[in-house]
From TrEMBL:
One of its GO terms (biological process) is DNA catabolic process. Residues 127-438 form the Exonuclease VII large subunit C-terminal domain. Residues 267-302, 355-390 form a coiled coil. Residues 8-100 form the OB-fold nucleic acid binding domain. It is an enzyme of class 3 (hydrolase). This is Exodeoxyribonuclease 7 large subunit. It comes from Vreelandella songnenensis. Keywords: Coiled coil, Cytoplasm, Exonuclease, Hydrolase, Nuclease. It catalyses: Exonucleolytic cleavage in either 5'- to 3'- or 3'- to 5'-direction to yield nucleoside 5'-phosphates. Belongs to the XseA family.
Length: 446
């Protein structure tokens, strides 16, 4: 027994169990009956596969579920290819489905699944080129007598009568079908080099059994479609039928009629759009004409004949000239009246008396000016005397006059401390009156 100290966690136990199942059992084919089929919004399919003695939970994930052509219903007997695994969070033993087929189809479906996986791994299903819309020259590979070509031509004629269609009749069932379609694809691609207007290929046939459609599961046909220089649309069988040719083509349509609808526009819808655009254009033109008519009427109402405009301007100029003449005459009259008044006032004045009065006024002003100048001179002299006293009080010369001296070295710097001198140094002393040149004999600390 293992030691309790090495006990596994539940997560580790489930992880080891899953790895053992996937390694030791791996991928298997299992046959049984479907039950509890569930399709949540995620797109995955969950169900139970059972027989009369046991059952196993199964999951078919969305990326694989979209390739399942047959519906999956409770009670259906199916063969399932999948990987045995374990869902670790819940510890559920389960089968992860990769492919599902109705029981009884046998080896055909098994071969289909193997070839599909091989081609998908090689990238043969990677074409996604857009088809021209509408194509200039559409090349159709189909049976000349089948229902599919009749449906396609009827839809093309109803939707787009201008379609340029070339039918290349080929067998679409039996052993000779795939080689014939491969040869036709090669021929059409070679001719496209000479006629660039050929720009799209449609491969189509009506519905049938798996055996009837088997030619479209041919490996070489799928490769020929993949390598086609011209983009290819495939429309084989009914909506539930999916062939390798559908996967290899650039675009798949669920039915021949749907292929025709996707290849060309609907003339009736275009006519309706054109009529709508024409109506909108007509209404826009009418609104523009109405707006422009109103603007024209407004401009016409404002427009005047040049002669009428000239007469109006001439009348305006005449009016201005008359007003100017009257204004000049009125101003001249006023000035003449004022000159006469001034002349009368001047004549009535005694010039001698006026001269004496003005002379007396000038003398008074001169006396006032002399008095003001004298007072101002006295005030300024007093301020100057006061400033001189203050300046003398703070002047260094006044200090020197009281017996002090200023010592300066050879560079003219003032010596303030004895420590700043050396014995033998020459100094200049400035006194209250004159200067002395001295030599330092000895420094004293006090």
């Amino acid at each position: 027994m293992p030691d309790a100290t090495t006990a596994l966690s539940v997560s580790e136990l489930n992880k080891r169990s899953r790895q053992a199942l996937e390694r030791d059992v791996g991928e298997v084919w299992v046959e049984g009956e479907l039950s509890n089929v569930s399709r949540p919004a995620s797109g995955h399919i969950y169900f139970t596969l059972k027989d009369d003695r046991a059952q196993v939970r199964c999951a078919l994930f969305r990326q694989r579920a979209r390739f399942i052509s047959a519906p999956m219903r409770d009670g259906d007997q199916v063969k399932l290819r999948g990987r045995v695994s374990l869902f670790e969070p819940r510890g559920d033993y389960q089968l992860i489905a990769e492919a599902v087929q109705a029981a009884g189809l046998g080896e055909l479906l098994a071969a289909y699944e193997r070839l599909k996986a091989q081609l998908e791994g090689e990238g043969v299903f990677a074409n996604t080129r857009p088809l021209p819309f509408p194509p200039r020259k559409l090349l159709i590979l189909s049976s000349a007598t089948g229902a599919a070509i009749r449906d396609v031509l009827a839809v093309l004629d109803a939707r787009w009568p201008l379609a340029d269609v070339t039918l290349i009749p080929v067998p679409v069932q039996g052993a000779e079908a795939a080689p014939a379609m491969i040869a036709a694809l090669g021929l059409l691609n070679r001719q496209a080099r000479l006629d660039p207007a050929r720009d799209a290929i449609l491969i189509t046939r009506g519905g049938g059994s798996l055996e009837d459609l088997w030619a479209f599961n041919n490996e070489h046909l799928a490769r020929a479609i993949f390598h086609s220089r011209l983009p290819v649309m495939s429309a084989v069988g009914h909506e539930v039928d999916v062939t390798l040719a559908d996967f290899a083509a650039d675009m798949r349509a669920p039915t021949p009629s749907a292929a025709a609808e996707r290849l060309v526009p609907d003339q009736h819808a275009l006519k309706r759009q054109l009529n709508d655009q024409q109506s909108r254009l007509q209404r826009a033109i009418e609104r523009r004409l109405e707006r422009d008519s109103q603007q024209l009427d407004s401009l016409r109402a404002r427009l005047r004949h040049p002669g009428e405009q000239l007469n109006r301007q001439r009348q305006h100029v005449t009016t201005l000239a008359q007003r100017l003449t009257r204004a000049m005459q009125q101003t001249l009259t006023q000035q003449q009246t004022r000159v006469a008044q001034l002349g009368r006032r001047l004549a009535s004045q005694d010039m001698t008396r006026l001269h004496r009065a003005e002379s007396e006024r000038v003398n008074q002003l001169n006396r006032r000016l002399e008095n003001a100048m004298q007072r101002q001179l006295q005030r300024q002299q007093a301020r100057l005397t006061s400033a001189a006293r203050e300046l003398n009080a703070i002047s260094p010369l006044a200090v020197l006059g009281r017996g002090y001296a200023i010592a300066q070295d050879e560079k003219g710097q003032v010596v303030r401390r004895a420590q700043e001198t050396t014995p033998g140094q020459k100094l200049s002393l400035r006194l209250g009156e004159g200067r002395l040149s001295v030599e330092v004999k000895r420094r004293l600390s006090k």
